[in-house]
Amino acid sequence: MKRPVLIVLLLALAVPCLAFGQAQTAPPPKPGPEIERLGFLVGTWKTESTSSASMITWEWFVGGFGLVGREEGTGPGGKYSYLRVMTFDPNEKVYTHYMMTSLGPGGALAKGTVAGNTWHWEWDGTVSGKPAKYRFTVVEVSPTANTTKVERSVAGGPWTVTAEGKGTKVK
To answer: Residue 45: which CATH number?
Structure first.
């Protein structure tokens, strides 16, 4: 009498486990064209601007839905490092770029769009304790070259160019 109860109990536990195992075999989603568009960055880039010089290496994150970048450079404040994460937000229809620096606490979240070969990024920050807005424009000149421009507006003031530069893919 105990044996049929044990068999029923084992079957009751096994069926959901089998169903769960089958549900997990569905193929994972594939990155869409917006994510694939980020592929132009993959590799190592040498960047030079009016305010800094750096090397940044971008690689696909596991699953292929975003990029991770590690940057080492020198600017007005000395040596710095950045950790960057870039992906596409399908709900807002914008690219997102999270930046964390070795120069201080916190980070920045930029939102961007691309039209043709031109990327436009914007984010908020501070300058001497005052609120600031930043714009970063990247123009893909070729698969191995780009030009950049950084602008900012402090406390609602006029937009000024703070840096212009170029990037060259080295590998």
So the answer is: 2.40.128.20
* Residue 161 domain-assigned (yes or no): yes
> Comparing 30-34, 45-49, 105-109, 151-155, which segment has the lowest mean pLDDT?
105-109
Domain that holds residue 162: 33-169
Which two three-digit tokens encode residue 144?
Answer: 């191995």
Q: For residues 15 and 47, what is the distance between their CA atoms, to the nearest angstrom? A: 57
Tell me the pLDDT of the chain averaged across its residues: 89
pTM: 0.79
Q: Which residues have a Cβ under 8 Å from the Cβ of 144 and sit 6 or more positions away? A: 168, 169
Domain count, the chain: 1
Rounded to an integer, the average pLDDT of 151-157 is 96
Residue by residue, DSSP assigns 22-79 as HHTTSPPP---HHHHGGGGG-EEEEEEESS-EEEEEEEEPTTSSEEEEEEEEEETTEE
Residue with tokens 């105990």: 2
